[in-house]
Amino acid sequence: MPELPEVETVARGLQARLQGKRLLSFTLNRRDLRKPVPPGLKNKLEGRRVEAVSRRAKYILVHLDDGGVLIAHLGMSGRLVFSDPQHPRPAEPHDHAVFGFEGGVELRLNDARRFGLLDYATESNLAAHKLFRHLGPEPLGPEFDGDLLSKLLKGKKTPIKAALLDQRVVAGLGNIYVSEALYGAGISPRRLAGTVKGERAGRLASAIRDVLTRAISAGGSSLRDYVQASGELGYFQHHWAVYGKEGEPCPDCDCRPGIKRIVQAGRSTFYCAKRQR
DNA sequence: ACGAGAACCTGTTTGC
DNA sequence: TGCAAACAGGTTCTCG
């Protein structure tokens, strides 16, 4: 489920709850996630204190007090669920890993489809790590603008929809927010990526930043209650302009038959054919 | 070299 | 109602 805004929200929630806490135990119930959980992870984690939690692309980074970094990715179905003495939760199917902290606080990684992963790196090698080496820029980073986006897209003959899903081009966008950003910028998802430049690229960069920023705000405001209610991190309600709205009227023009759904590179795309060119 | 498509998994929704 | 097919927010490998 999680794209950049959800992962950012989860990382902030973890930061608030775990910073300064010592990790006492790590239990792995199954090793075969998207890729095997590295052997020896338990020894690298137990006894360490959490210094900070951050995000890169759709990866959660837990920075430890010895320079180690726990890397977590939630794939499509991954969730992080807290359980503690005040709000205990029963163990559930697909709880693949359990992190035990001081004070009886447990954080559980639950992931039915097992497209998520756990990995480990050191602070000094982080940027060169296999998972991060090829990632494009952060769309909310200070250098991300129309000029940079034009350069990233230059010469690409794939549809802009597919290009924006490619983490080597921009890091953190997923299927929902690509549709939303293209709608916001008034750009057809079928347009060839290489033709998005100049003023059009500027509009797209702005729309990407806008859509992500608003989603993070929505997540941040709903996170507190949601965590208290259920102990889960990572799911919250959004209102989307086009995603999942096939057949509904475009919010901006009352065109018929409204929002269209097409399949590109095996994934659903939603857009308004009148507004997006 | 590049882009489209399949593959990896399980759970839920849709359609006959 | 029951069953099978389609579909799901990600990433990575293979094939043409």
Helix and strand arrangement:
Blueprint: H1 4-18, E1 23-28, H2 41-45, E2 50-56, E3 59-64, E4 68-73, E5 78-83, E6 95-101, E7 106-111, E8 117-122, H3 146-153, H4 160-165, H5 175-185, H6 198-230, E9 232-233, E10 260-264, E11 267-271
Antiparallel strand pairs: 1-6, 2-3, 3-4, 4-8, 5-7, 5-9, 6-7, 10-11
This protein binds a DNA duplex (16 and 16 nucleotides) through helix 5.
How does this model look, in words?
- With 277 residues, the protein is an alpha+beta fold.
- It folds into 2 domains: 4-125, N-terminal domain of MutM-like DNA repair proteins (Alpha-Beta Barrel), CATH 3.20.190.10; 146-240, Helicase, Ruva Protein, domain 3 (Orthogonal Bundle), CATH 1.10.8.
- Helix content is 28%, strand content 22%.
- A hairpin with a 4-residue loop joins strand 6 (95-101) and strand 7 (106-111).
- Helix 1 packs across helix 6 (198-230) and helix 5 (175-185) packs across helix 6.
- The longest helix has 33 residues, at 198-230.
